[in-house]
Amino acid sequence: MDIDSIIQNARHIHFIGIGGSGMFPLVQILYKQGMKISGSDNNEGSIVDAERAMGIAVAMGQSAGNIKAGIDLAVYSAAIAADNPELVFARESGIPTIERSEMLGYITRQYSRCICVAGTHGKTTTTAMLTQILLDCGRDPSAVIGGKLPAIGGYGRAGGSDIMTCEACEFADTFLRLSPDIAVILNIDEDHLDHFGSLENIIASFRRFAENTDGPVILNGGDGNCLKMAHGLEKRMITFGIGAHHDYTAANIRMISPVCTAFDLVYRGETLCGLRVNVPGEHQVLNALAACAAAIETGVTPGEIAQAIPNFRGAGRRFEVLGEINGITVADDYAHHPLEIEVTLKAAAKMGYSAVWAVFQPFTYSRTAHMLDAFAKALSIADHVVMSKIMGGREQNTFGISTADLAARIPGCVWFEGFPEIADYILRHAKPGDLVITMGCGDIYKCANMMIAKYNHKKLPD
Predict the structure, then answer these.
(1) CA distance linking residue 269 with residue 256, whole number of Å
(2) Staple partner for 253: which of 263, 279, 341, 366, CB 3.0–4.6 Å?
(3) Which CATH number do you get for residue 92?
């Protein structure tokens, strides 16, 4: 029996790790479809609170006893180990088990207009922007987003239309399990080399993703790797980029403020409307072009887009301002690849701060080792760089790499083992008018929150 049949025959689905941000949108959608849902997690939190408010039974702690009679299917996240007692018991009991991305793939096939947004950089922002446009234009989409969208108060929603927006992550080829009706490809770059091995393999994987779509492929026509991926592809191609040779382009680009860029949306030489994008960084123009192209493919008019897009002011952990302490602005960003760090710090440099402090947490030994010089070059854009030890994630340090190797390549850089030491150092040295931005895809955001908490509840360190 295939996965779709297994899910369709299930009436009670149990989620192992139900409190995760990637699980919650799936729970919302399946619950709205009438499924009975239960789950477990190791930590309380706002997502668990929201699920319980929906009437879903969530157990704290994971044990075989949580797999009750009547459960037809268990869904587990990628973070769940193979020896998890619930996963082991479900399998021994003959209960089908599937990984989260397989469930997401099934859900994408339940919508006749599923827009899957892929790319090495910018997926979350573009998916969130597109969702905001569709929501504000009354299209009532379902959504699965990799970051929080303030307009929906979370990482996704269960809508009432046939439209779905879905962030499509390339890591471990999980996006190949999705079934897009519209595929958006923002860019293709070297990343996750521990899985792919080479840029050529990454391009080939994106090619398979594009081939899986039933409708058009919307791609960055200014990205050489995207063009290489698309060569000879027998799909309807829609390009976006800066320049009149693209289907969708931006003309008359002007910065209204450090956090607002205005431009004219142009389609094949015809000006459709004027737009204002209220998120910092010139690269957001490309994200907006992709979102606009996808929205128009679903029937949204340019006039509607012009009204809706200014309401989008970013997604969680994407240049998210968390607070101000003693005149110092504290922000957080998910940037974890050299190109992402570069565009984020270049945007920050244009925002009028006295100095920019980059507080970076390297993630995975392989990425740090393979891109050491590129990380050093990107981080050096900041006025000051402070780093933590490498967060290994799923890896063992077989590379003999450490943060000290990266710090040695950045003039004036300092690094510390723990977040408390970083927070104390920043509070001692940053000055009013400075921007402190924590960066990385691990848990470096905790350091930003720690700085704010230390300032609000304690005296500055001596």
Answers:
(1) 24
(2) 263
(3) 3.40.50.720
Same domain, 367 and 290: no
* Predicted TM-score of the model (pTM): 0.86
Residues 297 and 328 in one domain: no
In which element (H, E) is residue 430 found?
Answer: none
Count of alpha carbons within 13 Å of 145, Cβ hemisphere only?
31
Both 135 and 260 in one domain: the answer is yes
Say which residue the tokens 């706002």 belong to. Answer: 46
In the predicted model, what is the mean pLDDT of the chain?
94
Helices and strands in the chain, H and E counts: 17, 21
What is the residue type of 443?
Answer: D
Contact 387, 413 (CB under 8 A): yes
Q: Are residues 132 and 234 in the same domain?
A: yes
299, 395: one domain = no
User: Can you give the three-state secondary structure of 2-35, one letter per residue?
Assistant: CHHHHHHHCCEEEEECCCCCCCHHHHHHHHHCCC
Query: Do β-strands 73-76 and 328-333 pair in parallel, antiparallel, or remain unpaired?
Result: unpaired
CA nearest 285: which of 298, 274, 296, 269? 274
Evaluate if residue 300 carries a pLDDT over 80: yes
pLDDT at 290 > cutoff 60: yes
Same domain, 234 and 177: yes
Percent of the chain scoring above 70 in pLDDT: 98
Q: Which two tokens stand for residue 15?
A: 């989620």
Task: Give the strand order in the sheet containing 248-257.
Answer: 154-157, 142-149, 163-167, 113-118, 182-185, 217-220, 237-240, 248-257, 260-267, 270-277
Residue 375's nearest CA partner among 394, 403, 334, 397 is 403
3-class DSSP assignment, residue 373 = helix
Tokens of 457: 């509840």
Q: What is the CA radius of gyration of the chain?
A: 22
**Alpha carbons 215 and 3: distance in angstroms, whole number:** 23
Strands 12-16 and 36-41: parallel
438: β partners: 332, 359
Q: Which two tokens stand for residue 421?
A: 């030491």
pLDDT at position 460 over 60: no
pLDDT in tens, 238-282: 999 999 999 999 999 998 988 899 999 999 999 999 999 999 888
How far, in Å, CA of 275 to CA of 277, rounded?
6
Q: In which region does residue 124 sit, left (phi positive, over 0), alpha (psi from -120 to 50) or beta (all else)?
A: alpha
Closest by CA to 236, choosing from 289, 183, 167, 186, is 183
Assess if residue 72 is contained within a domain.
Answer: yes
Please report the DSSP string for 50-98 in residue order.
HHHHTT-EEEES--GGGS-TT--EEEE-TTS-TT-HHHHHHHHTT--EE
Of 298, 299, 259, 264, whose CA–CA distance to 279 is shortest? 259
